[in-house]
Amino acid sequence: MSQTLRLIPIGGLGEIGKNMLYVEHGNDALIVDAGLMFPENDMLGIDYIIPDYRSLLDKKHLVRGIIITHGHEDHTGAIKHIANEFDAPLYATPLTRGLVEVKLRDAKMHADVTLNTIHAGDKINLGPFGIEFFHVCHSIPDGVGLGISTPAGLIVHSGDFKFDHTPVDGWPTDYSKLAEFAGRGVLALLSDSTNADQAGWTPSEAVIDPAFDAVLREAPGRVIIATFASLIARIQQAANAAARYDRKLALVGTSMIENSRIAQKLSYLDVPDGLIVPIDEALRMKPKQVVIMTTGTQGEPSSIVNRLAEGRNRQFDLHELDTVVFSSHPIPGNEEMVHRTINKLLQRGARVIYDPIAPVHVSGHASQEEQKLLIHLVKPKHFIPIHGELRHLHQHAANAREVGVSPDSIAVVENGTVIDFKDGEMHVGDRIPGGYVFVDGSGVGDIGPSVMREREALAENGVVVVDLRLNGSGALASTPELTTKGFVFVRDSEEMLGGARAQVQATVLKHTGAEPEVVKEKVSSALADYFYAETKRRPMIFTVVS
Amino acid sequence: MSQTLRLIPIGGLGEIGKNMLYVEHGNDALIVDAGLMFPENDMLGIDYIIPDYRSLLDKKHLVRGIIITHGHEDHTGAIKHIANEFDAPLYATPLTRGLVEVKLRDAKMHADVTLNTIHAGDKINLGPFGIEFFHVCHSIPDGVGLGISTPAGLIVHSGDFKFDHTPVDGWPTDYSKLAEFAGRGVLALLSDSTNADQAGWTPSEAVIDPAFDAVLREAPGRVIIATFASLIARIQQAANAAARYDRKLALVGTSMIENSRIAQKLSYLDVPDGLIVPIDEALRMKPKQVVIMTTGTQGEPSSIVNRLAEGRNRQFDLHELDTVVFSSHPIPGNEEMVHRTINKLLQRGARVIYDPIAPVHVSGHASQEEQKLLIHLVKPKHFIPIHGELRHLHQHAANAREVGVSPDSIAVVENGTVIDFKDGEMHVGDRIPGGYVFVDGSGVGDIGPSVMREREALAENGVVVVDLRLNGSGALASTPELTTKGFVFVRDSEEMLGGARAQVQATVLKHTGAEPEVVKEKVSSALADYFYAETKRRPMIFTVVS
Lengths: 546, 546
Known about the structure:
The structure is a homodimer. The first copy, chain A, is an alpha/beta fold. Chain A has helices at 73-76, 79-85, 94-106, 175-184, 208-218, 232-244, 254-265, 279-284, 304-309, 335-347, 368-378, 390-402, 449-461, 494-510, 516-535, and strands at residues 5-10, 20-25, 28-32, 48-50, 63-67, 90-92, 115-117, 123-126, 129-136, 143-150, 153-157, 186-192, 223-226, 248-251, 290-294, 323-326, 351-354, 380-386, 417-422, 425-431, 437-440, 443-444, 463-468, 481-485, 540-545.
């Protein structure tokens, strides 16, 4: 009797199967990707979120390998956590491996993890799995999708992809391999849903070139281009444009410099000698001779772009004739911060260029027509949309139905859902236990809903600490002291806080001789009522009775 | 010698001149609009933000009238604050007046404010100002723009507008009046910049009709349409579609019912008898006979849509065959909450339709080609983009330059900037003092940056209160008590908190006999170091020594 092939998408937050996918057959398993998610705006104080693989820990001995499809944070950022729990060799293309190595070195885990370099076109065998890596275009070079041959059939995993006919590195997605898979028969296709609600075809990276040309041609002074540190292709395009307009290129920011260094060393970035100059050299040149490239496209407070916008960058200031280009889109949730940064840059006299004002950024993910093309190329028996929120998966399923995939052959599932294949049939099972694993400081998974609710309450109305000294007979030994933070501006609220002290005194008087616990509770409750009546706010109140 | 005409855009937050505009000539002044802004995600605990008119209070005796261009919150929501400070009669069209009256009644100010009804096409005189109201299309009916004749020249104010050739109420923007203004000579045009970065022409409200038809035709059960309570035109369109598909329409939510009642009474909503039914009647009908219309398009936690998404709506539940339509776009900053709500609705089995999946919403603001048309129609001598963030104003200025407005005749300014007109020339002056006026509970303007920073710190890492009892000789009289909120999950952190108590004991021992203030400071600082070492978090620490 044939064994079951089991797939479980695991995720950090709302996107499904993006950060991690678990593949199991018999006593062998694979992990695909090891990424993190950034918290949403109301996840107060959280640094990042990792896939909830806790239910898989009893299967850790089954895992034969961890495969990373490309070098983005949402596919690599949890590597130190995952490689720490699952003791299996890593497989990645040269650039992806280079970027993962930096993370492992930072976590002082480099010596403990076996790293293997693979290339698009390679095939490796891990237990019963034969894994073929095929090249896909995306907003970072050297991304791959996977063909995973299993005893139950062939699974195709798109990775993050688009069909770019004119990519910056001249390396299109591997159509022939996809067609070849179709010829062999594909049990299931797992495909990137990020842009499932975008009609048409995602523009090629090539549209950036004329946009950059226009910016450099018209810029009266320096051009500062902000983009993601991983967008090596964009750095290439900026370098090309700089060369065309006789400007030098300076890179600023640790991650961008580090990534470019790795990409250059591995020949993913091809820049003529002397084009890239150190920033302090660039700062001594005529403004019209300079392009500066940096990170900070998301309005992050500590980024160079934001420091320039607020006039607090140490190394150099924003000039009136500077042109700042946001070669990026705001990540959902960051819109306000990005727009605020743009407004501040304009306020300081800079010119600011961003999409939709000019086409200085394109998405790295397939739109609807590309998603349909992938389905037509691969001709899968079953279809599992992944890499997107539930709404994207549902729309991707609708797109698949449009091109003839039967509704019964599509599985739209949430993270943790077990999908089994047996005798060529797909069965959607239950969800394994799981939720959010918040990382806050050095704590992993120790912050849950109750702590989050306390943070929300503190953020909403602040805190009041009451220091209450009682004498032997239970009367006040001294005037009660009130300390507030985040509640009211103390200097303007003396009268109201005086009233609060009177309220405390009256309450203690009324309950003289009661147990300290009772006094404490009565005082807190009287103060809560008083504060609400006076301010319509509900600060958190701590009363210390001694 | 001629007198100066002065304009000062006043705003609550990042958008310029949207919430309030101050117009002054000699000893007479006008206020245009009295709106509020909603706080950004990192403005913790703030309810809303009102225009900072504090510097104008010494001119309050000059104000001859307060004119409201249309009934949206960002033009009406601060009326109770502004009408309280500036004792002048209000002027608004019937629907706008109806909506403002509700606010004044809620604030128990109805008896104190003089309300005057005006109509598009009317002209009134207030001191030296002759004000002509002209109809503009927008996403609420009965909106007007203003032609303000002053001794210094004619000012045209667009209000919030679009050029819709097929608006739901059949009432296009008043092109002839705009052309007539041009014939008389326009000193300055103030124009809506919201969509300045959107190419082309904003689609007509008419595109919604076939989209609603498709939804109602294909819906296997109830259709629940969420939209803004002020979007009377959308309620009309839903009613029309319901009638076409033999469904009844039920309205849910106080503000939507109240607004519809006012709109119906004033004939801005034309619905056949018997089409609108109470919700409890609708709930007894067959699902395919029902359209429910409600608010909650922004994922607000307490809205009906979000309660349905989370399965905690009291009056009725979501059914598997329900179709939920978001006839709206997320307001910037709300994207995460909206998408989370959509995902939860899908999770519960509903079908969800939203733009861009189907064209079930269009903007109420002019895009680039419409903005250019307005300039061509009005032929202003000077151009002042308003109603947008600085980035929109800059782009609107670029659009104006494209159609031949001289750069010297354009003023891109921030809120509080004085713009003077004298002898036909425009002079941009300094900014009057001002900033954000946060409303939090009953406090207006009492929360500033320092309190916000405290709230941020509390939100980030929570709070720890240490209760320290010393005996006469300065040694600990009892084990120190630690209370935490929003810092760690206490049940899982007993060991770490035990270590913290030991840290406190060691610190007190080391400083036995020192002043209580010194002990307090040393304990707080030792704990801060300990917590950071253990958790990489920095909670706010309050030490109470007694």
